[in-house]
Amino acid sequence: MFKEPILVIMAAGIGSRYGAGVKQLAKVGPSGEIIMDYSLFDAREAGFKKVVFIIRRSLEKDFREIIGSRIEKLMDVSYAFQEIGNLPDGFVCPAERAKPWGTGHAILAAKDAIDAPFAVINADDYYGKTAFRLLYDFLVKVQEEPQEGPAHFAMAGFVVKNTLSDNGDVTRGICLQDAEGHLQEVHETKAISRRADGCVRGVFEEEEVEIDPEGLVSMNFWGFTEAILDELESGFPLFLTAALKKNPLKEEYLLPSIVDSMLKSGKATVDVLPTPDTWFGITYLEDRASVTAEFAAMAKSGFYPDPLVKEEN
């Protein structure tokens, strides 16, 4: 039986590097739009009719006022709440911890709202139209496949050089693929930036590595079947046991690492769907000016209607 694919938007991150305000709700469009407005516009255009917002309880009032109440008129909307104290029985969150437990924990928080194949995106990233079309089509077609065997997932692949920030380093999931375009490994790499010598480098497993600027990275735009949910749930206690010993204030349960583990154990296969679109987003406060300029240019060229928000009400 066909199930309408769901779009899941992760918007619970504190955004400590942004420096001020809630970056997911920053107005960047020429008529006051936020990045999520564009993602939702593109998602609906691609075919998505349902959305689950993962937020913090403390954001609920502002979130509903700024975007939720408006989108509820256009899509089937559900909410899930990611809180750092929401842990399995037997685990206690350290009192000093301030940040959520990562993207894997975010999806777990939304488990009860997910009953169909789903796409996952970050709230503060702009992905372009192509990725939404590719992932929606995948989520429709994967339902026609036999259910036995490894889980079948997909990922939108973005070119490394198109995902860097001019204002500081970033974390990306560097993708290794086979000849058929299937994902083999994801290397969660931190502190990525273009260095003074022009090379792109980052830190993987505590060692600095050089990165191919033409290679593909995960920007947390995944296409999952419900099989990922059981994996996340069973793996979270194991992660917590190790994390609370290693670095209880900063360790995160991250989707790229979880998918990488499933690949290595033969539990999943992942199609990499390359997109030519340029990613951009707000990682640092200084990114906002360039993002605002990008949306202004797209509105001026007619790529998006202006005002987008009014057009969609």
**How many beta strands in the DSSP annotation?**
13
- What is the mean predicted local confidence, pLDDT? 90
Order of helices and strands: EHEHEHEEHEEEEEEHHEEHH
Query: Could you say what the CATH topology is called?
Result: Spore Coat Polysaccharide Biosynthesis Protein SpsA, Chain A
**In CATH's first tier, which class applies?**
Alpha Beta
Domains (count): 1
What structural class do helix, strand and pairing data support? alpha/beta
**Oligomeric state of the chains present here:** single chain
List unreliable stretches of 5+ residues: 14-20
Distance between the termini: 32 Å
Radius of gyration: 19 Å
Main beta sheet, described?
Answer: 11 strands, mixed
CATH architecture type: Alpha-Beta Complex
Strand content: 25-35%
Q: Percent range for helical residues? A: 25-40%
Total of DSSP H or I helical runs spanning 4+ residues: 8
CATH superfamily: Spore Coat Polysaccharide Biosynthesis Protein SpsA, Chain A
Molecular shape: globular
